[in-house]
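Two proteins were folded this term; both appear here.
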Amino acid sequence: MHRYRSHTCGELRAADVDARVRLSGWLHNRRDLGGILFVDLRDHYGVVQLIAHPGTSAYEALDKQTKESVIRVDGLVRARGAENVNPELPTGEIEIEVTEVEVLGAADPLPFPVFPEDGVSEDKRLTHRFLDLRRQRMHRNIMLRSAVIAAIREKMTALGFNELATPILSATSPEGARDFLVPSRLHAGKFYALPQAPQQFKQLLMIAGFDRYFQIAPCFRDEASRADRSPGEFYQLDVEMSFVEQEDVFEVVEKVMTDLFEEFGGGRHVTSPFPRIPFREAMLKYGSDKPDLRAKLELVDVSGIFADSGFKAFAGKHVRALAVPDTADQPRRFFDQLGEFAMELGAKGLAWIRIGEDNALTGPIAKFLTEADTKALVEAVHGKPGTAVFFGAGDFDEVSKIMGAVRVEAAKRAGHFEEDVFRFCWIVDFPMFERNEDTGQIEFSHNPFSMPQGGLEALQTKDPLDILAWQYDIVCNGVELSSGAIRNHEPEVMYEAFAIAGYTHEQVEQEFGGMLRAFHFGAPPHGGIAPGVDRIVMLLADEPNIRETIAFPLNQTAQDLLMGAPSEVDEARLKELHLSIRKPPPSK
């Protein structure tokens, strides 16, 4: 018999009754019922019940061993009585009568229980991540991640894509976040940058003629943590294709995402095909460029109706209305709670009216609206008796942010929200440029390597703020999975686009020399995208926090509490790297 096990803990069934077996695993739980000791033994594959009788060496050994100790047991497979069968376990028809126990790794007292999975602070969980990963939910999430990545590789290869690796040590790139820098020992005063994305390299692969590339690519960005963004590093399904237009990219990604979410989504429906929503339409209707389409409500611009109305609080402001049907039975508390929700987001309040029979209006601002205002408003929101209408007023961005969140919250509270479904969409037609509110300068609004719609002529003849780009985002249930674009592959277009953003020829050549040189030697039209693996798994696992889908994430302040990173470096190492440390003065 094998030194440690003849079977795994999840393998044995009724057909194995009377077999002599050897198992190894962690002491998951222990119960003493009427003098008989019941122990759950757990390994990667499952849980099996052990029994030991009083007066035996096995009983004494199991009785004194701490939870999460690693043990090896020998024993006989016994059938459970019909009244003791556990249908929740694949091994629930049998148990192991233990004859021998060996302790392979004793466990100290636990800082928190692995079973049951009681609440514990995230910092404590991350400090002892090796214990946290033993919990059933976390183990399931990490195995889901592994299965999803394996399926991605299979699906991409079947579609004719080749998995190619790109460098980790490279030069800085303008991806919109701070780089992690690595000092060079051989080249004093110079630094490598960890890639924010393999953007330039995957384009160079297309120029080199590889046609269809993909990679489960590690990306590194020195940016703040969010519930759907892990600080430090993340992984993405990096994709690039030659001789394609936007719809060609969409066709591939829709197939892969639909297949993935149907395979791993636990029976939740995947809506297909994915609708295409222009960026400006998304901001107007949903208040967001990553709309949650499970909410069956839309915003309506009613600024014109209030421009000359008697409600002076809205005069001269951008006003967005949200119509919520079937609210006749909603109590006043429904309106007050949505108002409180809006105020938590920064609103001063949330005005509202209710449409009654004959389109008569009631509510706090109804008295300020004339008969003409009422008629125009009811028509604009397609209102019917029993519809409540909420209003937000202010500048466009502020109203979009607040009313976009109110839209989803109202849909959930009023029963206009779809559960158990994955609703994807494409956001298209992003502006190529935007104006920096602080400096007034024109900047790239998205990926600087994108092809502008209209090409060089658009760059030379249009107002930069009116130029759209062949850029797109894929969104699922309000979570942005990825940005992508049809790339610019023409040197003159690149020079002109960067000139509008304030770059000189010399700066472009200095920062993107490799890419520019490649463009001069026959670059094909190409495009791509890079859906985030962490976010895909987060959605499939139905986890609100992305760190629950990563084996060893940094915490919210970008620290590895288990390994102690970032850490200080001694003076000898700094000298070798030609570095000295200048710490900021202590805060007062």
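Next, the second protein.
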Amino acid sequence: MNHLKLGEILIKQGLISEKQLQEAIEVQKREKGRIGEIFIKLGIITEEHMAEALGNQLGIPYHSSNNLELLKPQRDQELDKLIPGDFAKKNCVLPLSRHLNSLTCAVYDPLDLLLLDNLKRIAGCEINLVIATQTAIQGAINEFYFQKGTEAGSSMLDRAVESSYTEFKQEDLFSIPQEKTGDTAELSLDKLIAKAEEAPVIKLVDLIIRQAIDERASDIHIEPFENKIILRYRIDGRLYNIPPPAPHLHLPIVSRIKILAKLDIAEKRLPQDGAITAKLENRGVDIRVSTIPTVWGEKVVMRILDKGAVPLELAGLGFDARQIELLRKALSAPYGLFFVTGPTGSGKSTTLYAAVNETVDPTKNVLTVEDPVEYKIEGINQVAIKPEIGLTFATALKAFLRQDPDVIMVGEIRDLETASICVRAALTGHFVLSTLHTNDAASAITRLVDIGVQHYLLTPSLVMIMGQRLARRLCQKCKEPYEPTADQHGGIVFKSDLVYKAAGCEACKGSGYKGRVVVAEVMPVDDAIRALISKGASHAELKDMARKNGMSTIFESGIRLVEKGLTTYDEICRISVDT
């Protein structure tokens, strides 16, 4: 059998043991799928090691992911007509070149004899093989088949959108019997479901989501207006218009999304919330779906939570070495309160997850209560609140205290009851992490006092407060250097002779920025800060003391990022409140 041959090869190469092979075979019996994919999924072996081992054993050339130029198909041989794109993607096979009656293809499983027979039959010629990883081949397939377009720069979504104005005929869609509801004509429910399940609509929704993920979008907005749809992606904190589908497809598109998110497609009068779990290559992507009724129909917003695109570790988020040192020192405390503050969209949740990740330990019981659970993390017990059945932050926290916790994460403190339970938990030997909506770190203390937490409770419980923003990161391919003058930036003198400004290129779609970086102020709560809290000090007094203790404000931290060439002065001014 094929899987035994692959297993024997990997054992012979010393990459797996007999016990690991049997474990993978048992998983294969339960979950189906190829044995090689199961080895990788279980973490027994990496894609690279498996591909290299197969190449060595079978005498087939191995194309390493370090040299992806070898996975560039010949453009002038019409290979896309020889091997169709859908077949290539489904079977993870990439035609590279043709010579006489011989076609060279990249595969990741050369032991799949059925695939080789199908290839020979489809291409009508002999097949020569090279080996590469599944990830590398799929990336090359996307680039070769699905990103070249009918014109330069045309994407799969662009072509699907264009076809939505021609292939989908409005008169066909609305020849379905309609029902009158007040002044609005709506498709009958069973017909609407049928339209939502048609292949072109399914493909269009899939492409809208896939392109959003490929372009690193955090949100997808589908907005109906009179005689048009507006489709927008939020990328690096800003909304960008995307070519929209034909307006008569709004109902089928929304219905398809509702079906995926397990929402009630018959309910169009009330807001609804749901979730979709999508599979992209070898990783899962969670999508939160929200619908609201507008005068022109339902607006849909999809929040993309791609854990694979966001490093859930402090070192990968952009904090400098000194800040990471302070954060890790605070997170190593046996008990206390740790707060991340900032406005909506400042990356608080991601930082909180990264901080919780730092505390994960087989010897600790870690519990979280969130609204909703954004990223699922192994080794952590996560609870999503459900106010409609009485499961609130406060009730979950009360239950947590009976669950023998070491670390508790609370998605957000919104009221005195939740805050009081968090403080009590911190005072009784638990480490508690949470977020607050405040402008800076020092404001968190005054906010807690304002909602009713007593000074004498905060003094012994607080260990760390950090405030943060997200600044757009300069595109490293097109950023332009310049020499700052003394009067150019409000009198600020930079330590570096050159700083950079945004330019714009194809890689960043003309914006001059690509990605985002955390700009933070980290405020350890030491004895001096505690003394001020006990005296009921003002926000200004707390902030001044923190700066005397060495805290850099968000603006000051941002200036250091400008000096490093990571962002621009204009961007730091945009996100700062203390300029």
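The first strand starts at residue 93 and ends at 99. The CA atoms of residues 95 and 518 lie 42 Å apart. These notes refer to the second protein only.
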